[in-house]
Amino acid sequence: MIDFDSARDSMVEHQLAARGIERARVLDAMRYVPRHAFVPEGQRHWAYSDAPLPIGEHQTSSQPYRNPTLARSDIERALGDSERRFAHDFRQ
After folding, report:
1. Which alpha helices (DSSP H) does 12-65 contain, by range?
2. Model's pTM, two decimal places?
3. What's the rounded Cα separation, in Å, for the pair 76 and 37?
4. Among residues 2, 22, 43, 92, which one has the fewest Cβ atoms lying within 10 Å of its Cβ?
5. In the chain, where do the E strands start and end?
6. What is the pLDDT of residue 58?
């Protein structure tokens, strides 16, 4: 039987924090979400590996490191768009 709590803690430490993800809320969220619960039972032993996983319906979940990285990119892009709109409005 796999100790999913230990696997999740290890994922956070070795795959996220070790790669520079520092925000405590992000690390806590990744530590909290039971990734194995979203993976088909036969694949659960891979749930905390550094790889994308099948989640059914011909879809995959990104590898753990990609989730906070993609979210950060979306936030930065949205902030950049807001700043450009503000600058444009300010000049007019």
Report:
1. 24-32
2. 0.66
3. 30
4. 92
5. 53-56, 59-61
6. 85
Tokens (6 digits) for 80: 């950049």
Q: Is 62 a residue of the active site?
A: yes
DSSP state at residue 12: I
Question: Beta-carbon neighbour count of residue 53 at 10 Å?
Answer: 21
Residue located via tokens 């993800």: 21
Residue 27, pLDDT score = 84
Which listed residue (10, 62, 73, 82) is catalytic?
62
CA distance 17 to 32: 15
Q: Which amino acid is at 32?
A: Y
- Report domain extents, the chain: 4-91
